[in-house]
Each structure stands twice: as structure tokens, then as C-alpha cells.
Amino acid sequence: MLAPSYRKWPESLWRDVTLSPVSKPTLLSVNEALAGRLGFNATWLASTEGVAMLAGCHMPAGVLPGAQAYAGHQFGQFVPSLGDGRAMLLGTVQDCEGTSFDVQLKGAGRTVFSRQGDGRAAIGPVLREYLLSEAMHAIGVKTTRALAAVATGEDVLRERALPGAILTRVSRSYLRVGSFQYAACRGDVTALRAMVLFAATKLYADRDTVAGDENPDIDALRVSLFDAVADAQADLIAHWMSLGFIHGVMNTDNMSIAGETIDYGPFAFLDSYVPDKVFSGIDVRGRYGFNRQADVARWNLARFAESLLFSEDDDAIAPMRDIIDDFTSRFQRRYRGLMAQKLGLPGGNTEDNAVIDGCLNILTAESMDYTRFFRTLPDRVADVGGEIALRNPRAYKDWAEKWAARVTHRPGGFKMAVDIMSQHNPAVIPRNHQVEKVIVAAEGGDLKPFHQLFDAVTHPYLQNAIFEAPPTREEEVHTTWCGT
User: Fold this and answer.
1) DSSP calls for 366-424
2) Which residue, 265, 352, 366, 462, is the most exposed by fewest CB within 10 angstroms?
């Protein structure tokens, strides 16, 4: 069921994990749709034996948990040894299409990389990631996914005692930029070559022209891999920003080689549109603010490139530098394409770009609710009254008339534009205040709000009067935390 495929990698990249059983594990939720896709029996996962595995208490025969080693730049400072301090990799499964996924427990106890931490997780961060990752998947953003969550029956100590929980999540791969940095700073070329070969041929085989070669040229493969990862990150960050999503901690150890959103910590969605918004309570200098995410991704890619070099005069330097220089253009093309879809525009021309820029200026000046603005725009068209009082009705009216003129004269006209907008503007996102309500209820033992919000955010394009409403001023969440 779970193949220990990672153990074929160089031993420097992983460590064995000793299980730390908890006292009274109970199931909080099983993602039945994902379980079925991965070949798991949801009934078995909910059984005593299944919950024992999900809680890290006891493993089925052949399942040998391990923790991955990695390094990383954290808020710009390099830390040479980080690793899975509260996560353990159980193994690999294949879905119904033959695609492999790694299964990991998060919050299951200490590993050799835990340092001073307890390796545990509280129920709040577990349910936040469960909700958010599945919401992102439903919208169409590449992400790790939540397979299950269990309560441990034990408290964890943070600012106060909180109910403990463990998340089971899956990913195409848990390789990060920090994985390559870990090997590179130790001069471990064997490990670097193994990771390059795996990532290029398994994660990006459709792009790699030498994937079928039994003895591929690793030197050439590095550039092919780097180009693929840069493309994936341009797509990912563009998708984040088109949705108003802030990751919160874009350290290099949180940047997935698979191009997935990973390690949900102090993330948040914009309510009012504030381009330089920072939610994370630990990001005191705003390094990972909303409008800096593409620049940070480019910076992280430069660190990735450095870790792929085998010598000072490496032939890969020039082509990888060109890819880094082109990254901002790649991101802008993806981002503007997504914003054009949100506005029902054909995109790709100067006139449409001017409408997009004008839209962002209006959102900034008026501090409008980001998600609701796009969702309700076709109904309001050039209505300057709308749902809120505007600071500058004339500026909004001028922009709205330009937008209406562009979409009316596009192929298919206004109706086609509205159809496109309805497919690219979710009605429901995991709004910060709704997630906080779920956490408070779950800490008190009530999971009904969690299941209600989960159902809403996994059907993001369906109208839902309860969950699509913006927060009141009293409900607004201004700061988020990672919960470690």
C-alpha cells in the first residue's frame, strides 16, 4: 500500500523516525474523495488500525517512517540544518492514473530534526491546513492535500494548553529548494544528482526531452529542471496573487520543487485589497507581504540555482541566470492572463492591461473586498452606488465604463465575459474570520462548523450567503500565526 521509495535515495537525505504513540487518538475527518483516488479504503482509515497509523502510533507491515533532511533561508538567513522537525514520511502511493504521491504525517512527534520542539501540532493549525489545502485544490491551485486529521487526546503547550492533532497530507514530492541547499552546503554531489534525476524525470517528465534516456546527462538535466521549476513557480505565485492569497512564510525550505503550495502557516486571504498587506505575526519587516511574493520567489530561485552548481565555472551558470532574469516576465504573463480571466477580458493587449491596472488602482483606493468585487462586478457594471460608499465615485465610474466597453466588444460579447468570470472568480474562499470561528469551536469539541465550512470551500463557485460574506469590522483578522 505504502512503498518506502524515498529509502532508495542517498541516506544523507533522510533519517529513521521512532514512533511516539499518543494516548487516545480519534478521527476528526477523512477526505473520502482523495482516499478513494489514492486507493485507500476510507472505512479502513476510520478503523482502529487505520487511526493508529494516522496518529503515528502503529504502522502496518512494510511502512517505515522517515524524516527528510533539508536546509533553508529563513527570512533571508541561511540555516544549514532544518529538516522534518514535526513530520514523518510514510511512503508513496499511486493514484488511479498511475501518478505517485508521498504520504506524510504532520504533528506526529519528535524527529532528529526537532531541535527544541515537541514535534506536535495543535488542532487549530491542523484544521486550518486541512481547509485551506482542499479549498486551494478545489479552486485549481497546485497544493499539498489533506487526506485525514486525527485528535491525539493530548494537549500541546503553546501560549496555552491546546488540544493536539495530526494531519495526514499528500504531495507529489516533499522536495524543497532547501533539500538541494542541504546537499550543496555539504558538497554532497551524489545526493544532488539523485534529487535532480528524480525531480526532472518524475515530476517534470512531460517537459524533459531526455527523460527516457537510461543514462541521462545530469549536467544538462539541471538546467531543464531549473527551467521547469521556474515555470511552475511563476504559475503558482500568479495563481496565489490572482486570488488575493498571502503565503506568509516563503522561506526556501517552504518552496516546493513540485510547484505546490506547501507548509501552510500564517497564510491569509485579503479581505480589503491592500497591496502591501502583511498578516504574519512573525514577519515584522514585511519580507513576505502580498505584493512581494513574486520577487521573493525569484530570490528563492536564485538560491536554488546556486545549489545546483557543481563548480565556479559551471556551464549551467549562464542559462540559469537567463531563466532568473526572465522570471518576472514569466510571472507577469501568467498573472495578467489570470486577471484578464477574472475580468472577462481576452487579455494579452495594451488596452486590456490598462483595464487590469485601473482595476487594481480602484481596489487600492477604495479598499474594496477583493473576492466579492470580482464576483459581483457583472451585476453592478457601472453602478457607482453598489454595496459600499465610494471615496471617488467618478474614478470608479470612468473605469467601469472602460471595462464594460472592453468586454462588450470582445468575441462573444458581455455574456461570454460573464461566463468566463463565473469560472475564474470563486464565491467562497476560506475567509480568515470564518476559519478562526471553526478553530474556536473545534478547540471546544464542536466540529460542525469545520464540516460546514469544508463543504462550502470545496464548492467554491457555488453561491453561499453565509460563507461568501466579508467580515464585519469587528470580525476582521489582522494577524495570523504559524502555530508551531
Assistant:
1) HT-BHHHHHHHHHHHTT-SSTTS--S-HHHHHHHHHHHHHHHHTSTTHHHHHHHHHHHH
2) 462
Closest CA to 129 of 270, 230, 260: 260
Q: Would you call 211 exposed, middle or buried from its count of C-beta atoms within 10 A (0-12, 13-18, 19+)?
A: middle
Which residues, other chains included, contact 318 with Cβ-Cβ below 8 Å and sequence gap of 6+? none
Q: Tell me how far CA of residue 264 lies from CA of 250, 255, 261, 434, 447, in angstroms.
A: 10, 11, 8, 17, 21
Active site residues: 253
Residues of the binding site for Mg(2+): 254, 263
Greatest C-alpha distance within the chain: 69
Report pLDDT digits (tens) over 320-367: 999 999 999 999 999 999 999 999 999 889 999 999 999 999 999 999
Task: Decide: 454 and 132 in contact? Cβ < 8 Å.
Answer: no
What is the CA angle 454-458-459, rounded to 5?
A: 120
Q: For residues 184 and 26, what is the distance between their CA atoms, to the nearest angstrom? A: 41
Cell numbers for 185, please give them: 552546503
Q: How far is CA 115 from CA 118, 119, 173, 444, in A?
A: 8, 9, 24, 30
Give binding residues for ATP as ranges: 83, 85-86, 106, 118-119, 169, 176, 263
Alpha-carbon span 350 to 354, nearest angstrom: 6
Instruction: Show me where the domains of the chain are located.
Output: 5-171, 177-339
Q: What are phi and psi of 334, to 5 degrees?
A: -65, -45
Strands (E), 45-144: 66-68, 72-74, 77-79, 87-94, 100-106, 121-122
**Residue that the C-alpha cell 499528500 belongs to:** 170
Pick from 222, 237, 426, 221: nearest CA to 328: 237
Place 155 in a pLDDT band, splitting at 50, 70 and 90.
very high
Distance, CA of 397 to CA of 381 (rounded, Å):
9
pLDDT tens per residue, range 205-245: 887 544 556 677 888 899 999 999 999 999 999 999 999 99
What residues contact 280, with CB distance under 8 A and at least 6 apart? 246, 248, 249, 265, 266, 288, 479, 480, 481, 482
State the Cα–Cα distance between residues 186 and 404, nearest whole angstrom: 58
d(CA 2, CA 91): 5
- pTM, two decimals, is 0.95
Per-residue DSSP letter, 143: B
